[in-house]
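lol ok so funny story. i was supposed to be doing the assay writeup but got distracted and ended up predicting the structure for this chain instead. priorities right. anyway since i did it might as well share w the group, maybe its usefull for someone
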Amino acid sequence: MSTLTRPNHIGRKISRIRELKDMKQEALAQALGTNQQAVSIMENSETIDEEKLIQVAKALGVSVEAIKNFSEEGVINYFNTFTENDFSHSQGTNFGSNNVCTFNPLDKLIESVEENKKLYERLLQAEKDKIEYLEKLLKEK
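and the output, tada:
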């Protein structure tokens, strides 16, 4: 029986998650402190002991439950939630189109320009005060 037809083939699920994360077997092996051959054997195993599964989940940056519940259909459905909403807008370039700006960006720009102007004036005054103080010191000598 092919591993693709077995819904609870943990090794195959680990392999698919690793591939989706664009991780090679060698990289996973290094994270687990083992070699590529051991990862290959693990990915061909239908079951894996819980302790090893915890280590693999940590190395992949996912939860043990994510590995156990992984399905190709779930991944497809997950990505479809992005595209179904986004392509209904204009030309599909509105990824994350639910963002709403709660302020006027031009107002914020003007505020920052005014703040910079005030800082510059304070710096200029400090320099004038310093020059005045230095001139005073020179006259006293």
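The chain has seven helices and no strands. The CA atoms of residues 113 and 131 lie 27 Å apart.
back to the writeup now i swear
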